[in-house]
Amino acid sequence: MWWRVTSLSQLVSSSKPSLLNQMRAAYGLKLWQAFSTEDFKRAEGGLCHPGRTPVTTFVLGGPGSGKGTQCTKIVETFGFTHLSAGDLLRKEISSNTENGAMILNTIKEGKIVPSEVTVKLILKAIESSENDRFLIDGFPRSEENRVAYERVVGTEPDFVLFFDCPEEEMVKRVLNRNQGRIDDNIDTVKERLRVFTALNLPVIKYYSGKGKLYKIDAIGTEDEIFERVLPVFAALRPKTCNNILQKQAINEK
Ligand SMILES: Nc1ncnc2c1ncn2[C@@H]1O[C@H](COP(=O)(O)OP(=O)(O)OP(=O)(O)O)[C@@H](O)[C@H]1O
Ligand SMILES: O=c1ccn([C@@H]2O[C@H](COP(=O)(O)O)[C@@H](O)[C@H]2O)c(=O)[nH]1
Ligand SMILES: [Mg+2]
Fold it and tell me: How far does residue 67's CA lie from ligand 3's centre (Å)?
């Protein structure tokens, strides 16, 4: 069985010195500005300012499994910044950027946008944030995405949540979502499920093998599911919840 709940002692972030960090220090560049498409292929790792070691969590699961819903709750309770790869891509469409039309077609078809586009958007969002803990929702979608992220960023996620939901329930949720999403229709959902099984499950399996995966049963009410998520983040409390603890201490005085 390849599902394995990781030991809590592994929730420690790591950083690597990198060529790009040195370049950025020298030229005042943000990492996402520092590579062109060509550079992207050979970029070395390195995400943040020297000494900045953000906690990153990938949040995975099929379409409609409840990733976004649970991320909202995690943000409220544990002060993470929620970066939904899908939302970042949809913003490109609504802002009419150079990749907007390509992204729109890819999402309509339920396929995966090229890694260089998505990784760049994620890096830009991380680097624009003051926070040091991030939920990266709906990414990586494929092994190719994963390898591209790790090559550019230079670190792996600290841990990975996987919302495990039966297909029938996912289809029901997506078709009832009512948020006007172009991909919330039965044909696109079928393709998204196919892509999830073919390309995303191998990523989930990879992190399971590394002992980084937390598999969460995604059936139940939103609150019941959040109860299952809580223990994963409770282990991070001393490191990641200083603000919350400080606020509590002030209020208790
Ligand atoms: N536990 C739940 N029970 C029933 N409905 C839920 C539950 N959690 C979320 N939903 C609803 O299901 C729909 C999909 O949820 P959500 O958008 O969080 O999924 P997602 O995994 O982010 O999907 P996608 O990958 O398509 O973005 C939403 O309308 C949400 O309100
Ligand atoms: O890393 C990513 C994330 C998303 N996409 C595309 O966007 C849609 C919608 O994503 P959600 O996470 O469900 O909001 C997805 O089906 C892909 O087409 C992507 O290509 N890469
Ligand atoms: Mg979502």
Answer: 6
Task: Classify residue 85: in a domain, yes or no.
Answer: yes
How many domains are there within the chain? 1
Q: For the domain that residue 156 is a member of, what is the CATH number? A: 3.40.50.300
Axis crossing angle, helix 167-175 with helix 186-195, rounded to the nearest 10: 140
- With a 6 Å cutoff on the Cβ, whether 62 touches ligand 1 is no
Q: How far is the CA of 208 from the centre of ligand 3 (A)?
A: 22
Q: Is 46 domain-assigned?
A: no
Q: Is 138 exposed, middle or buried (0-12, 13-18, 19+ CB in 10 A)?
A: buried
**Backbone φ, ψ for residue 160 (5° rounding):** -135, 130
Q: Answer yes or no: is 252 within a domain.
A: no
In a domain, 167, yes or no: yes
Q: Give the environment of ion ligand 3: residues with CB less than 5 A.
A: 68
- Structural domain harbouring 189: 55-234
Predicted TM-score (pTM) of the model is 0.83
pLDDT digits (tens, 9 = 90+) for 214-232: 999 999 999 999 999 999 9
Dist CA 110 CA 107 (whole Å): 5
